[in-house]
């Protein structure tokens, strides 16, 4: 923790310890594992653009599924469990003008319950998380498609919202992390209980540990953690601080990664 605070104060990045890599604890097959995964501690939720599969962690058995109209749900990207609901980041990617919404599902039964449209966003919504009494969102832009003219992966932002989704803070990502995102952007992020934001891109087998700066509006890159999966949305398990969920979209595999609980 002292190292994290030092990084936040200096603005420098701390290189990950190659002797302590992230390890794979468990793997599951899930046909919906194309965009991301979330966990409630008992079940995991494999996420595709317009469908979600609910699986039991104990044995990997699918227990429920939801299928949405692809015209109404063109791109659900990531989800996280908040209380008794699955809260998901959604957009109309790759269409422009960009439009984003928060899609909310009940856990039992797995069903869509409401949509929250977001106004005047700086990109396509890829992340929605709950931490420290606020909603936290990541908005993405891309080099090749899905972004307004003149915007690209450099235009990736972390935005803090009030309970009523009024913006009350915005941060940019440092060049070292943006370079790793290119030509895409941030696909996943999850706050730890130690105020560290774990971030994933779209393609590289890496997790970026980020911290809010003490001054200014650029996030601090604390470390880069190697993982076996290649990008897409992630989620920290709410019942285990050392378990990070991720997916390998090529093989439709859901992975439980064991990480340092101090992260």
What is the number of helices?
Answer: 2
User: What fraction of the residues are assigned to beta strands by DSSP?
Assistant: over 45%
Largest sheet: 4 strands, antiparallel
Structure classification: mainly beta
Radius of gyration: 17 Å
* Low-confidence segments: 1-19
- The main sheet orders its strands as 1-20-19-18
Q: Which geometry do the CA atoms define?
A: globular
Order of helices and strands: HEEEEEEEEEEEEEHEEEEEEE
Please tally the β strands and state the result.
20
- Cα distance spanning the termini: 8 Å
pLDDT averaged over residues:
92
Helical proportion?
under 10%
Description:
The protein has 263 residues and is mainly beta. It is built from 2 helices and 20 strands. Strands 1-20-19-18 form a 4-stranded antiparallel β-sheet, with no helix packed on it. A hairpin with a 5-residue loop joins strand 14 (188-191) and strand 15. The chain is globular, with a radius of gyration of 17 Å. The termini are close together. Residues 1-19 have low confidence and may be disordered.
Précis, in short:
With 263 residues, this protein is mainly β. It is built from two helices and 20 strands.
